[in-house]
Design goal:
By secondary structure, this protein is of the alpha/beta class. It has 24 helices and 17 strands. The structure holds adenosine-5'-diphosphate.
């Protein structure tokens, strides 16, 4: 900034110096002509009266030569370019020339001296006139003035002083006083002239800068992509730049003096405009308001506006300056993105709906397949081969059921329908239960299970879902293990109240690159292998753990084994764990028929296959049962017969299971155990059943052991 100021100051000084030399040279045509004429007049008057005619001739010659040289110099100066004129040589020459001219004129009383007082006085008067006249043209620079004045007047004063006439001393004194005053007057003129030059140059510079600024502004105004619009208090347009022409389609001529609202606002946005106008009238600037405008062709155009009120000296609003940026493309992209996001969400929803209803429909036939397979196994007459075929059917059916259940889970998680009930889950309890459930599979695969169940402590989780995740990890650890390998569970306390549950195997391991992939749905590393699986277990586990505010991951080394871990909030303090000491129940043998005799059960089921299945299952378990195909028939039957238990499907024609249960309870029968058999595995379904007055829910496919346990629970 300082150096910038210094530069401009220097420039200004340079401009002033140039102006001075121009003014000095500018006076020369007049003053040289005058000097020439005066010199000739003096010469002609003194001729014949001067003391020495030769000296007078010399004086004239000198003065004419000096005048000629200086005239040539001035002529050359005016022909030179502005840049040339700035060279210091001109100045030096002019000042030196003035000094020489001063000396030449000072020589007049010496070389043109006349003893006749009348002529000598004439010389004095002429010289004083010349000196006085020179002040006008030389006062642009005090040095030039001094250089002319001092030799001319000094030599004159000296000559008068040396003259032996009586008044000469007084005359030279008066002359000196005159010279002194002339000089100081000249100096004042010089100062004023200097000041004038400076002011004029500064004003010129300022004017030029303003003009440049205006030009730049006009250029920006015309070339900016921002529409710049100004309008007066009556909303009539006063400024309309090129971008405004481009954005709104009206030319400047068309827009000027037109009402801005009529030009660019759609008819239905007057409320919005009124609000904006009110803000502006309150001296508030509007920044970044997005408004839907219209073009001349009535097309919509979205603009982002920056609007400020313009005020006069009394702070009265006289108009408005507005800038608008066309953001139509950006807005369209945003809308398109929103639309495609909505479409994607809808498609995803449709996919989840499809999966959910598909799996639900699959459960009904699966119920029959698995149920009858289980029943067949109790036939005493089966050969070993037939038994083994039944095992195959049962295994395949179970795998299919697992897949259907997992797809249902996935769909429910994606739809956000899965509800968790978070609680303190006793680690000993859950590990004991998992241990019991996977031991048969481990035994079957010749694997050692190293699970210390007495862990103590708790984690904050949903019991059922955590068990589902742990069972998935444990069954994977068994499935993907090697011959005679081992599976273990480790529980560690980590800092910040986090518990890590690790499921460790001695299998093939998973390479680092594939460790993330296995948590994606349907990613199986060895899909072609004989190991059964669906490829969804881990992805469900991940989502479940994350829903429980935990994390899941794997550390693995090829050929050494894998360690799958779950981190959940919790504590390993054994005292807290001890508070909840419910232990897992051991599995019991399915076919215990003794206690069942004598109970009469009513079954309401509309599907014929399911009817046959449940009747067979009940028979196998030793119960007597009657079957009806809807709720209405069930109610009719119950009028005459006393049943000990009602097994009912939920969805049936005429009267469904829910209405049936409600009617029975409203009829005053609170004691009859009512158990729903439903293909819906959702917990919401169970809640609905209980609300309708049922006691319990069994999900299809009905497992014989579950059926037996439930019946025993309610009949005993
Ligand atoms: P599934 O076991 O039904 O195929 P998962 O989602 O549970 O599906 O597992 C995905 C894949 O991750 C498996 O197919 C398997 O290739 C790999 N995997 C899972 N657990 C292990 C493990 N303990 N050791 C080696 N590979 C494993």
């Amino acid at each position: 900034m300082d150096s910038h100021n210094k530069n401009t100051d220097e420039q200004l000084e340079q401009q002033i110096r140039l102006e001075e030399i121009r003014l000095l040279h500018g006076g020369t045509p007049f003053s040289y002509t005058a000097s020439f004429v005066i010199a000739l007049i003096i010469y002609s008057f003194l001729l014949g009266h001067a003391a020495s005619e030769r000296n007078l001739n010399i004086w004239l010659a000198i003065i004419l030569i000096v005048l000629l040289l200086r005239s040539i110099d001035s002529y050359l100066f005016f022909r030179a370019s502005r840049q040339e004129q700035q060279k210091t040589g001109w100045r030096t020459r002019f000042i030196a020339g003035t000094g020489v001219a001063g000396v030449c004129w000072g020589l007049l009383p010496w070389l043109g001296y006349s003893p006749d007082p009348e002529y000598f006085t004439f010389i004095i008067v002429c010289l004083i006139g010349v000196i006085a006249g020179s002040l006008a043209t030389l006062s642009y620079r005090w040095e030039t003035m001094a250089l002319f004045l001092l030799p001319a007047s000094g030599l004159l004063a000296l000559r008068i002083f040396l003259d032996e006439q009586t008044f000469s001393n007084a005359t030279s004194l008066v002359l000196l006083v005159f010279i002194f005053f002339s000089y100081s007057a000249g100096k004042r003129v010089f100062n004023n002239t200097q000041q004038n030059i400076r002011l004029r140059i500064e004003a010129d510079n300022r004017e030029q800068a303003i003009e440049l600024m205006h030009q730049k502004q006009a250029l920006h105004l015309q070339n900016t992509p921002l529409a710049i619009i100004e309008f007066d208090i009556n909303l009539n347009v006063t400024e309309w730049n090129r971008a405004a022409e481009k954005i709104f389609g009206y030319s400047r001529e068309e827009a000027i003096d037109e009402n801005v609202l009529r030009l660019i606002l759609p008819r239905d946005s007057s409320d919005e405009a009124e609000k904006l106008w009110e803000r502006l009238l309150n001296y508030e600037a509007v920044i970044g308001a997005v408004i839907e405008n219209k073009t001349k062709a009535k097309d919509p155009v979205f603009c982002e506006w920056f609007i400020t009120p313009l005020t006069d000296e009394q702070n009265k609003i006289v108009g408005v300056a507005a800038m608008a940026l066309d953001i139509t493309d950006k807005k369209r992209n945003e809308l398109a993105m929103m639309k495609s996001r909505e479409e994607a969400e809808q498609a995803n929803q449709a996919k989840s709906d499809f999966l959910s209803s598909m799996s639900h429909e699959l459960r009904t036939p699966l119920n029959a397949i698995l149920g009858f397979t289980q029943l067949l196994k109790y036939e005493k007459t089966l050969t070993e081969k037939q038994q083994s075929h039944l095992d195959e059917i049962g295994n395949a059916g179970n795998l299919l059921l697992e897949l259907v259940n997992q797809i249902l889970d996935l769909a429910r998680i994606e739809k956000g329908h899965l509800q968790l009930s978070m609680e303190k889950v006793n680690l000993t309890e859950i590990i004991t239960e998992c241990h019991a459930m996977v031991s048969p599979l481990a035994e079957q695969n010749n694997l050692a299970l190293d699970i210390k169940t007495e862990t103590g402590g708790y984690v904050i989780a949903d019991y059922t879902r955590l068990k589902q995740v742990m069972l998935n990890l444990l069954s994977n650890a068994i499935k993907y293990n090697r011959e005679n390998g081992a599976v273990s569970i480790k529980v560690l306390q980590k800092p910040d109240g986090i518990i890590r549950i690790c499921v460790i195997d001695t299998g093939e391991g998973i390479s680092r690159e594939l460790q993330n992939e296995i948590f994606q749905p349907f990613h199986r590393l060895n899909a072609a292998s004989s190991i059964e699986g669906t490829g969804i277990g881990l992805s469900i586990s991940k989502q479940l753990v994350e829903m429980m505010n935990g994390t899941i991951g794997v550390n693995s080394e090829i050929n050494r084994g894998s360690e799958f871990w779950i981190d959940l909030p919790g504590n390993l303090d054994s005292k807290i764990a001890a508070a909840n000491d419910t232990t897992a129940t051991a599995s019991q043998s399915a076919a215990n028929t003794d206690s069942s005799y004598g109970h009469k059960i009513l079954v309401a089921e509309d599907n014929l296959t399911n009817q046959a299945l449940v009747l067979n299952q009940l028979q196998t378990l030793g119960y007597t049962a009657e079957v009806v195909t809807n709720g209405q028939e069930a109610l009719n039957k119950m009028i005459n017969t006393d049943y000990q238990l009602l097994l009912t499907d939920c969805n049936m024609p005429l009267i469904d299971g829910y209405t049936l249960a409600k009617t029975i309870r409203q009829g005053g029968n609170q004691l009859l155990p009512i158990i729903a058999i439903t293909a819906d595995a959702f917990p919401e379904k169970k809640a609905e059943c209980l609300e309708a007055g049922m006691n319990d829910v069994i999900t299809k496919p009905v497992d014989l052991e579950t059926l037996k346990n439930t019946l025993e629970k309610y009949l005993d």
